[in-house]
Amino acid sequence: MPATPHVRTGLAIALLALLAVVQPGAQSNPTFPADRVLTHREQATHVRGWVERRFDTLLPMLMKRTGLDMWIVISREYNDDPVFRSMAPLTTFSSRRRTILVFSLADDRVERFSVGRFDYDRLFTLVQTPNDGQWEGLRKLVDARNPATIGVNTSNAWNHADGLTANERDQLVATLGPAHAGRIRSAEMLAVGWLEAKLPEETAAYRHVMTVAHQIIREAFSNAVITPGVTTTDDVVWWMRQRVATLGLGSWFHPSVSIQRAGGEVPASRIILPGDMLHTDFGIVYLGFSTDTQHNAYVLRPGETAAPEGLRRALAQANALQDIVMDEIRPGRTGNEILAASLARMREGRINGTVYSHPIGLHGHGAGPLIGLWDYQDGVPGRGDARIIPGMWWSIELQATTAVPEWGNQQIRMA
């Protein structure tokens, strides 16, 4: 949507970048139309196909890499393990009663079992048991496979890999008995590896997902939604949330819209006025993937055709910091190494900023290395020490603070 006379969207930074190898032509893939959101029925076909291909191509490698012969993922209705959604078709909204998924490494493939009553659209071989017989069914399956190592989702460092509750762990240990319980290990790096790895076709789809997110932001920051002097930031926030719902998309956090204004004081009413710089933090869930995008826009004053030079210079500072972080992200490096290198280059370039970038995809704050947190600019213990893998997606979140001469050298944050 082109910029309108009152709200100019040319002053904008989209703080999400893809670090992935994409097949040529992926952005113009006719499977993902530019003018509409896929129906749920269309999405279901894609999602199930991706889950099955991930099981067939990624999981054997990941289980070998982490040294686990068996992976047991246990969820209960309304208390799903964080990895469960990534293993289920679109027709499944949550686990049913108790869901026990078992993955058993057999040479170069992984056998997939669901112990209970549901095969989840035939993604799993059903080990059929009544609900009160699941633990017995699991024990028989483990006895038959006799794995040397059994992974379960427990972790201190990784929230994505800590889905096994205390009650279910107690029952699991009692079910397996001394013969197998001593073989239980944390599957934290298997769970993290599963969530952070992406298929090339998923990356092609994610470009479409991001296009939809940007279209919503562009419309929100236009005269179709904003009337300067009348519209409040809350009006725009609720418009964005309703637009997401109307399109049949999901959200993983409530959007925000804030104002920076010459003089620094923004009244409680937060009415958007000419001369304001707007900022939004916005995320959707579509095709099973989450987005996390920050954007800025400037509201033109009467007679203006562009944002003040000082604001454009501030944008250039933030863009330069984005480029630094993207240049430092390379497979094999840790998040803390990237953070330190980026901040050193930032200071050399006389940029006053902070870096707090994170993986994204199956979760908004995705599994994988953290590149700083807003309150951890010296490195993030644990999660910052993990290493980048090829094909990851990133939300490049950061801010640069710059003095704006036209605003009396007021310091503004370009995030």
Written account of the structure:
This protein is 32% helix and 19% strand. The chain is built from 9 helices and 18 strands. Helix 2 packs antiparallel against helix 5 (188-196), helix 3 (134-145) packs parallel to helix 4 (166-181) and helix 8 packs antiparallel against helix 9 (335-348). The longest helix is centred in the middle third of the chain and has 21 residues, at 200-220. The radius of gyration is 24 Å and the shape is elongated.
Q: Which stretches are poorly predicted, pLDDT < 50 over at least 5 residues?
A: 1-6, 8-28
Q: Please summarize the sheet with the most strands.
A: 6 strands, mixed
Q: Report, as a whole number of angstroms, the end-to-end distance.
A: 23 Å
Instruction: Kindly state the number of beta strands.
Output: 18
Could you tell me the mean pLDDT?
A: 91
What percent of residues are in strands? 15-25%
Quick overview of this protein structure:
This protein is an alpha+beta fold. It has helices at 40-57, 59-66, 134-145, 166-181, 188-196, 200-220, 233-246, 309-328, 335-348; strands at residues 7-8, 17-18, 70-76, 98-106, 109-116, 125-128, 150-152, 184-186, 256-260, 277-282, 285-286, 289-290, 293-299, 353-355, 358-359, 393-395, 398-404, 410-414.
